[in-house]
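Postdoc handover notes: sequence design on the structure in folder B. Input tokens:
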């Protein structure tokens, strides 16, 4: 679906008034009737211009590119099979990039692909997302087509379409607008690819704006299993040493799904064949070219098809031909009439493409003289006519004509275009371009400010910063600049800094604010710049002392207003980073008071989150931290990044304290909010997804976990991607997925990263243990322990895994003692010293480590495994069952077969329901040795999803929960929660329940919170009533298999 674009400059055309179409000539197919030489009439005023004057059959012939086309087709084949791919096609100007991509598009369409093509323009560094808007415009116009509904359903994409003047979405300040747009593009492609494979072509990337380059990198990194193929073309001869595309290409080529295709010059035989085809179809001189003439063309063309065609058209037998391609193109232009030459010069100032009406007004010619001139130009194949305008047959031609203009002529024409586009409501970025080229600084300032605002709203912060900076550069040279801009210079400077920060350049943002601070005399401006400087320095990881000082000064001089609330919130954040916990807490409390009094909702929510994190880390009450974060999530702040941050931290604290049901509900809400607002791939949108995954991994809903992990890429190229990918290993290793091996191979390059090493190598160790290779597991453990800080609580879990390996190896003594000592030290000290608290999961892993130490030393004490089993009873289904497995073995060794069988059967039921194949196979081997009949032999062992070979094949729909009985209110409770509820119903206090169940009072409290959340009640009395209605008694829970 190659889009047609209108750029006549009218208000209803579009914001992007020069979205250019496919190149034509030997590099592209521009006429659908080439074979017969028929022409498509295009109405223009009162007369008819013919799109094609001669037969264009040679364009359909691809010569000398079979190897390169085969590589591109390979990427297409992979996309068809569900493996996303990217191809980068490079070559000199005129070498045939568009031609080979056109062939690929034709092939893709025949195979049922949706094809989208967007072209960058030489003005592209000022017009954000021009190729994206170019591609989507035509696709979205077809409401019944495969792409239209997917585009119009996403507000961030609709804003790129003509006629949509909506501003940025509410709550998407700063870089969120870009994150929303990127996420929307990815979701749109994924949605369309679910029905038909997609080929998306970005042409002329050497002209792409920064945001388009960033989008291409994002899509390349995020696309994994979608049926999507991206292709980008670029000129190699334009890539000077400092060209911004160079580092992008270098980064992309390192990624596994990227194929790089360089088009070399054609060989002499291929050139001869190509020239023969051109000659055969009337593209050359009147007589056939042969002998010395043919040799001359081949030698002069240097393997470049476009150069060869121009030489052929100029007449190969001429005694003297121009020495360069540009000279040759201009020699072609000189054969035109004076009027036609003037029209071509005007068109060159407009750019690669120009609308008919705009060209008519810019030339000042009447309809008849203009049409005669255009007919002459089109017949000479210098311009091609479309439905509403004209396109230079090749960008090189437009560049040659433009570069040949005299300086005064160029200035005059740019001024004329600026005036005409202003009348038509043209794109502000294009207006700024013409005003600057026409030396109209007032017009350039006004248009640049408007272009900056538009780019910021579209989610193109780099371009917004560029436009604002351009306005600031000419500010002092423009009388009444503030009136023209509509704002004070300081506001434009602050907007420029905000755009730089949103684009990720926090250092530039901080420096710009520093400069503005030095110039400021107004106390309010000094306070505002101080607050912003502190904020940017924190995000940049800059001078923390400067960040504290700047925020303190802002607090000291800001009036009682929302500005003071924001300054206090930023100051509290800076103090917290410097570990000034008491002062940070006091400052955050004051920020909350001022925010509530002044209506600064963003500062209010930010202060609540900061207070909660301070309370969690340095305070004495997790409940207070939860209360603060709950308040933060109850009302929108006006900034979605703050809202998502509040939800993530609230869910995280619940998760870390064992309240899995509550954490699941909050993460689900956060993931939904991120998805509905297009922020799935924002920082906290991603964090919420992986936390949602961990919650379901722990609560036993592995089908839901694997559905979430479907978006965690396997072929990772960055640390951020590798961290997200690592989480998917928990369920993959637990279920024995073959895909875990491939994921681990990709992740192995990132094992030096502490978090990736802990998760990925930790799961590699567990995989090795299930495969009967404890030595490999121990090697992984040793590497992880050496990389972790001594106080890191992660040491506890990995020590338990290492002790499992040592026990299987039969080793005791110092290795065992050292690991257990490391685990105990981390538990007692923690990252915050003696005040640090260990959550239920940490307590459980420490109990597991203690039990494994006993197993390694041959101690037959079932009680240590009972403690480990009970510790995981807060809701960690899999780990509770794994502890129960060891408890059953210990009971067997002490001769208590009845108790061993009961524990073993409970573990078997859980393993079967989870689809934990390695665990289930191990349990069945234990049962076979003990002579226990398999309790799962006659029932399904797991949901169908648990048996799929790949997480991506998991069926949609509500997954079956672990061993739950449908239709009963208690079916959501785990075995331990039922036991606790039964005692609650008997009127026991938490201390008494803990004594009866051999668990701590704090663990009982966590269980009670989970029970209330799962039952949807608010008090112990209501929970007890439900228990009695369901007939639950203390003994009734004993037979549960959850």
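Designed sequence:
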């Amino acid at each position: 679906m190659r889009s047609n674009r209108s750029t006549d400059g009218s208000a209803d055309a579009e914001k992007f008034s020069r979205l250019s179409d496919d190149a034509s000539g030997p590099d592209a197919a521009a006429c659908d009737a080439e074979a017969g030489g028929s022409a498509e009439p295009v109405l223009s005023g009162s007369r008819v211009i013919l799109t094609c004057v001669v037969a264009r059959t040679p364009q359909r012939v691809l010569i000398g590119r079979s190897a390169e086309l085969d590589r591109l087709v390979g990427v297409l084949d992979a996309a068809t099979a569900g493996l996303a791919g990217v191809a980068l096609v490079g070559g000199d100007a005129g070498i045939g990039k568009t031609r080979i991509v056109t062939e690929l598009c034709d092939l893709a369409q025949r195979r049922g692909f949706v094809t989208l093509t967007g072209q960058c323009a030489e003005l592209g560094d000022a017009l954000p997302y021009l190729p994206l808007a170019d591609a989507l415009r035509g696709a979205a116009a077809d409401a019944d087509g495969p792409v239209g509904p997917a585009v119009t359903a996403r507000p961030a994409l609709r804003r790129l379409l003509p006629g949509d003047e909506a501003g940025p979405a509410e709550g998407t300040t700063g870089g969120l607008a870009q994150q929303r747009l990127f996420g929307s593009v990815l979701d749109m492609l994924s949605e369309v690819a679910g029905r038909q494979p997609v080929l998306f072509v970005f042409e002329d990337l050497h002209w792409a704006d920064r945001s388009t380059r960033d989008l291409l990198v994002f899509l390349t990194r995020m696309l994994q299993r979608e049926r999507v193929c991206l292709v980008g073309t670029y000129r190699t001869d334009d890539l000077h040493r400092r060209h911004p595309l160079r580092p992008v290409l270098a980064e992309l080529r390192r990624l596994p799904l990227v194929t790089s295709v360089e088009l070399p010059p054609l060989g002499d035989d291929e050139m001869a064949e190509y020239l023969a085809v051109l000659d055969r179809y009337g593209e050359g001189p009147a007589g056939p070219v042969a002998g010395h003439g043919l040799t001359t063309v081949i030698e002069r063309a240097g393997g470049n098809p476009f150069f060869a065609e121009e030489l052929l058209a100029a007449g190969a037998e001429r005694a003297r031909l121009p020495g360069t391609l540009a000279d040759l193109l201009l020699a072609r232009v000189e054969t035109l009439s004076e009027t036609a030459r003037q029209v071509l010069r005007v068109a060159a100032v407009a750019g690669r493409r120009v609308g008919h009406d705009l060209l008519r007004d810019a030339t000042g010619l009447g309809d008849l003289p203009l049409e005669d001139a255009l007919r002459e130009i089109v017949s000479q194949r210098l311009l091609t006519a479309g439905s509403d305008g004209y396109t230079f047959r090749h960008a090189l031609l437009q560049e040659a004509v433009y570069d040949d203009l005299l300086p005064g002529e160029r200035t005059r024409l740019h001024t004329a275009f600026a005036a005409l586009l202003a009348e038509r409501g043209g794109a502000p970025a294009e207006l700024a371009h013409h005003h600057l080229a026409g030396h109209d600084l007032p017009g350039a300032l006004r248009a640049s400010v408007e272009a900056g605002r538009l780019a910021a709203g579209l989610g193109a912060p780099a371009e917004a910063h560029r436009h604002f900076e351009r306005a600031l550069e000419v500010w002092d040279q423009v009388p009444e600049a503030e009136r023209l801009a509509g704002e004070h210079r300081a506001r434009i400077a602050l907007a420029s800094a905000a755009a730089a920060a949103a684009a990720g350049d926090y250092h530039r943002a901080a420096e710009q604010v520093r400069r503005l601070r030095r110039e400021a005399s107004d106390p309010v401006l000094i306070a505002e710049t101080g607050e912003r400087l502190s904020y940017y320095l924190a995000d940049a990881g800059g001078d923390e002392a400067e960040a504290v000082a700047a925020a303190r000064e802002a607090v000291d001089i800001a009036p009682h207003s929302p500005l003071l609330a924001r300054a206090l919130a930023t100051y509290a954040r800076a103090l917290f980073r410097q570990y000034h916990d008491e002062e940070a807490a006091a400052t955050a409390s004051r920020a909350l008071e001022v925010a509530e009094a002044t209506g600064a909702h963003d500062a209010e929510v930010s202060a609540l989150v900061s207070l909660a994190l301070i309370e969690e880390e340095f305070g004495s009450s997790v409940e207070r931290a939860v209360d603060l974060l709950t308040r933060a999530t109850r009302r929108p702040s006006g900034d979605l990044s703050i809202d998502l941050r509040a939800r993530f931290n609230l869910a995280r604290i619940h998760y870390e304290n064992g309240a899995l049901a509550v954490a699941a509900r909050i993460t689900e809400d956060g993931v939904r909010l991120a998805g509905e607002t297009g922020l799935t791939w924002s920082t906290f949108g991603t964090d919420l997804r992986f936390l949602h995954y961990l919650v379901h991994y722990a609560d036993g809903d592995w089908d839901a976990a694997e559905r979430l992990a479907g978006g965690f890429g396997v072929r990772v190229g960055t640390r951020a991607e590798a961290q997200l990918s690592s989480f998917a290993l928990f369920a993959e290793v637990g279920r024995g997925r073959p895909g875990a091996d491939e994921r681990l191979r990709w992740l192995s390059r990132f094992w030096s990263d502490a978090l990736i090493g802990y998760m990925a190598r930790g799961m590699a160790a567990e995989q090795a243990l299930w495969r009967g290779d404890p030595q490999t597991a121990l090697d992984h453990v040793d590497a992880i322990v050496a990389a972790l800080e001594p106080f890191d609580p992660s040491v506890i879990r990995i020590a338990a895994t290492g002790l499992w390996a040592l026990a299987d190896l039969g080793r005791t003594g110092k290795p065992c003692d050292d690991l257990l000592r490391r685990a105990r030290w981390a538990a007692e000290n923690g990252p915050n010293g003696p005040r640090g608290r260990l959550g239920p999961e940490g307590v459980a892993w420490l109990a597991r480590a203690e039990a494994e130490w006993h197993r390694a030393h041959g101690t037959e004490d079932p009680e240590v495994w009972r403690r480990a089993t009970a510790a995981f009873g807060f809701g960690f289904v899999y780990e509770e069952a794994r502890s129960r497995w060891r408890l059953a073995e210990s009971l067997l060794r002490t001769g208590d077969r009845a108790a061993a069988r009961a524990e073993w059967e409970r573990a078997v039921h859980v393993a079967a329901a989870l689809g934990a194949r390695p665990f289930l196979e191990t349990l069945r081997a234990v049962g076979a040795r003990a002579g226990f009949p398999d309790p799962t032999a006659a029932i399904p062992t797991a949901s169908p999803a648990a048996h799929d070979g790949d997480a991506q094949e998991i069926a949609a729909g509500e997954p079956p929960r672990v061993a739950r009985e449908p239709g009963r209110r208690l079916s959501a409770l785990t075995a331990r929660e039922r036991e606790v509820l039964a005692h609650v119903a008997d009127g026991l206090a938490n201390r008494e329940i803990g004594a009866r169940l051999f668990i701590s009072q704090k663990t009982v409290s966590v269980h009670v919170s989970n029970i209330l959340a799962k039952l949807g009640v608010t008090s112990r009395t209501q929970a007890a009533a439900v228990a009695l209605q369901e007939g639950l008694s203390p003994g009734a829970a004993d037979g549960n298999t959850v």
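Context for whoever picks this up: DSSP finds 50 helices and ten strands in the chain. Don't rerun without checking with the PI first.
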